[in-house]
Amino acid sequence: MLSNRAAAEIVERNRAPGRESWGSEILAPLIGVRAEYIESSFAAVREDWGDFDRYLHVGLGISEAEREALRRNLLE
């Protein structure tokens, strides 16, 4: 996943000389992304709200304009 590439860069920066490092065994689970976590959260939204549109609108109170702004900024 693309997010994990960024996470790997963060782990490498943490290993900079003169800097106390936590190491990848600690950092990776904290900042990494696993497909099964995302899939599980999507399943929970579908189970509890029916679909993401309803979750965003009713569950989070996000307007259509706000949703479109999120889509532009995060997906495109």
Short description:
This protein is mainly alpha-helical and 76 residues long. The protein has helices at residues 2-14, 24-31, 35-49, 52-59, 64-75.
Structure description:
- Helix content is 74%, strand content 0%.
- It is built from five helices and no strands.
- The mean pLDDT is 82.
- The protein is elongated and about 50 Å long.
Features:
76 residues; mainly alpha
Largest sheet: none
- Which consecutive residue ranges, at least 5 long each, have pLDDT under 50? none
The share of residues in extended strands comes to under 5%
Instruction: Give the overall average pLDDT.
Output: 82
Helix coverage percent of residues? over 70%
- Amino- and carboxy-terminal Cα gap: 16 Å
Instruction: Please count the helical segments.
Output: 5
What gyration radius follows from the Cα positions, in whole Å?
A: 17 Å
Order of helices and strands: HHHHH
Shape: elongated
Write the SSE topology.
Elements: H1 2-14, H2 24-31, H3 35-49, H4 52-59, H5 64-75
Helix pairs in contact: 1-2, 3-4
